[in-house]
Amino acid sequence: MTKEFTPDPVFHSDTANKFVADVVADEYVPLKKEVYVKKETGLDAMAGDGGYQEEKYLGNYLRAKMKRDGKRFWAGDNISEYVNDHNKEQLIDEAAEAFELVLDRLLIDREDDPNSKGTARRLAKMYYNEIMGGRYDPAPDATAFPNDSADRYEGMLVVRSELRSMCSHHHQPVSGVAYIGIIASSKLIGLSKYTRIAQWCARRGTLQEELCNDIAREIQKATGAENLGVYIQATHGCCENRGIMAHSSLTQTTVLKGSFKDDAGTKKEFFDNIKMQQEFSPR
After folding, report:
1. Which of 83, 85, 179, 253 shows the greatest Cβ crowding within 10 Å of its Cβ?
2. pLDDT beyond 50 at 118
C-alpha cells in the first residue's frame, strides 16, 4: 500500500521568502569619536599580546601605550609626554563622564540638584588642570644664569615656597610650605623658579616624604647644586577630615644632601634661616 506524501507546511512553504522580505538592512552609525587601533606586531605575537583596539576612550589607549612602553604612571609620576593641549580636552570629557557615574552611584541627583549640575565636569577640569596638573604639564622652564665669575655668589640661598598637594590614599588636600636651601653652584635660577618647581612637584597625588625627595631632585637638576636641603611642613586633610579627625596634623619632613647633611655648621645655618623666615612669615 502506497502512502501519499504530504508536505510539511513548516518546511515546505513560502515562509522563508516572507522572512527575506522582512529582513532589515544593517545600519552603520558613526561613533563620532576617534578610533585608536594598535596592530599586532611580531613582538606582540612573541609576547602573546594581540594588540589592542579601543573604540571609545582615549584614556584607555594611553594607559595601554604607557604599559607597553614600560612607563610608570603612578599618582605622583609626571606623564606629560603622553598628554598635551591637543588631547587634554578629550581626556577631561572622558573623566567628566566617569565622575557622572560616581555621582550617580553616590545617589546624588545631578539632573535636578542645582548645586550638582555640572559638578562632574568641574571635578574633571580641577583634577587635570589644578590639583593634579603636575602630572600632565611639563616641567617649568627654569632659565639658568652663570655664576662662575671672580665675584660669584658662594653663600647659602633659602627660598620659602607655599604648596598645595593631594594625598594619594584618600585624595584629601595637603597644604603647607617648603623651605629650599642651596649653596650656590656654577649656575643660578630665578627666585620664582624654586617655587614653580616645588609647586609642579606638589600638584599631583603624593606622600609628603616622596614630595620632599621630588623637590630636592628637581632643584638639584635645575641648579646643578650638590649641597642642598628641603624642609616641608604641611597639614593633611586625610588626618583632619576623616579617620582620627585630628585638630592639627602638622607633619615635617627633611631631605639633606652634601654639606647640608654632613657639615653641622651648614645644617645649623639652614635651620636658623628657616626659623627666621617662620618668624617673618608664619604659617
Report:
1. 179
2. yes
Q: Do 91 and 97 contact (CB within 8 A), yes or no?
A: no
Cell of 89: 580636552
Mean pLDDT of all residues in 38-67: 67
Where do we find the cell 584618600? 170
pLDDT score for 19 = 45
CATH number of 144-280: 3.30.1130.10
Q: 73-138 architecture in CATH?
A: Orthogonal Bundle (1.10)
Q: Distance (Å, rounded) from C-alpha 240 to C-alpha 174?
A: 10
CA distance 103 to 261: 48
Q: How far apart are CA 134 and CA 230, in angstroms?
A: 19
Residue 184, Cα to own-chain centre: how many angstroms?
32
Q: Provide, for the chain, the percentages of residues in helix, strand and coil under a 3-state DSSP scheme, each rounded to the nearest 5.
A: 40, 20, 40
Q: Which of 12-26, 106-120, 221-235 has the lowest mean pLDDT?
A: 12-26
Write 260-264 long-range contacts (CB < 8 A, 24+).
260/181, 260/183, 260/227, 260/228, 260/229, 261/229
Q: Could you tell me the residue ranges of all domains in the chain?
A: 73-138, 144-280
Query: 177-206 burial, b if ≥16 CB within 10 A, otherwise e?
Result: bbbbbbbbbebbbeeebbbbbbbbbbbbbb
> For residue 56, what pLDDT is reported?
86
Grid coordinates belonging to 162:
607655599
Q: Which residue has the cell 573604540?
A: 55
* Residue 206, beta-bridge partner list: 167
